[in-house]
């Protein structure tokens, strides 16, 4: 896996006796979009939490651009260029949508107020526009709907110019029309060299966006292939595609 932007080797995580990740290995190359799939409870969010330093792993090694980031703090990992969003984003109180975007992924309120005088920020206005948040830009971020919070968290993550963006179910709760907009936006960032690891259930979104999919089931990776190959994989159909998840 030499030369990968992100490399996981034999990464494990258990909660008590429950082995959620059992020596999983995969990689993400620069400029690649990889889907992380699997039934509910298969460990997708746990994998993102371990990769981004929000949970310690029990074993194995994680490298970002060759640097060992295993069990390094989330803050330092962000400094290495890995930015993530959460399945259920929480928004800071007393900050408007625009201020959250201004502060970037750090959610740093004092930074936002420092930046406040720079009202004419093309990239910020462009992000608000692309994610259809312009009309709510001056509302408190905590007042947004679940879908709008998702959009704002993805926009905020992009704003901090990540090398690797990890997204946890970015389209859950988002209107279907906006999902295709998100595909277009994410591809634009991929074309600028951003790598993306995305947990997602919407197969249309996956097929349009991802060049590869890693499928988790009961602690193991049961497939690592192109999206179009998933339907021909009996284990994937049995564990995931053929079931309501
Ligand atoms: P997914 O994102 O694929 O739906 P998760 O990674 O959230 O799955 O969870 C995988 C399993 O680990 C689930 O059985 C869940 O209950 C368990 N789990 C996740 N986080 C914790 C935790 N902090 N403590 C105990 N069990 C957890
Ligand atoms: Mg999850």
TrEMBL record:
rRNA-binding recorded as keyword: no
Q: Which controlled-vocabulary keywords does the entry list?
A: ATP-binding, Nucleotide-binding, Transport
GO cellular component annotations of the record: plasma membrane
CDD domains in the record:
ABC_Mj1267_LivG_branched (cd03219)
Looking up Pfam families in the UniProt record yields: ABC_tran
UniProt GO molecular function: ATP binding; ATP hydrolysis activity
Give the residue spans that cross the bilayer: none
Q: Which residues form the ABC transporter domain?
A: 6-243
InterPro entries in UniProt: AAA+_ATPase (IPR003593), ABC_AA/LPS_Transport (IPR051120), ABC_transporter-like_ATP-bd (IPR003439), ABC_transporter-like_CS (IPR017871), P-loop_NTPase (IPR027417)
Q: Does the keyword Nucleotide-binding apply?
A: yes
Q: Hey, which family's this protein in?
A: Belongs to the ABC transporter superfamily.
Protein name per Swiss-Prot or TrEMBL? Amino acid/amide ABC transporter ATP-binding protein 1 (HAAT family)
Give the originating organism.
Answer: Rhizobium subbaraonis
């Amino acid at each position: 896996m030499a030369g990968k932007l992100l490399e996981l080797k034999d990464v494990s995580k258990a909660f008590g006796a429950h082995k959620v990740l059992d020596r999983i290995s995969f990689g993400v190359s620069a400029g690649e979009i990889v889907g992380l799939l699997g039934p509910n409870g298969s460990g997708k969010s746990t994998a993102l939490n371990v990769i981004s330093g929000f949970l310690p792993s029990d074993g194995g090694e994680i490298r970002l651009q060759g640097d060992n980031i295993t069990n390094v703090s989330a803050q330092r990992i962000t400094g290495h260029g890995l930015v993530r969003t959460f399945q259920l984003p929480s928004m800071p109180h007393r900050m408007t949508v625009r201020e959250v975007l201004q502060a970037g992924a750090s959610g740093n309120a004092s930074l936002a107020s420092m930046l406040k005088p720079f009202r004419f920020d093309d990239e910020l206005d462009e992000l608000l526009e692309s994610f259809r948040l312009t009309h709510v830009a001056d509302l408190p971020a905590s007042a947004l709907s679940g879908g709008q919070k998702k959009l704002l968290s993805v926009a905020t993550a992009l704003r901090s110019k990540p090398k690797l963006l990890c997204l946890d179910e970015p389209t859950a709760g988002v209107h279907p029309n906006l999902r295709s907009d998100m595909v277009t936006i994410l591809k634009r960032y991929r074309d600028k060299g951003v790598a993306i690891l995305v947990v997602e259930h919407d197969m249309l979104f996956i097929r349009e966006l991802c060049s590869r999919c890693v499928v988790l089931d009961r602690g193991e990776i049961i497939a690592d292939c192109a999206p179009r190959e998933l339907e021909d994989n009996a284990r994937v159909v049995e564990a995931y595609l053929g079931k309501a998840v």
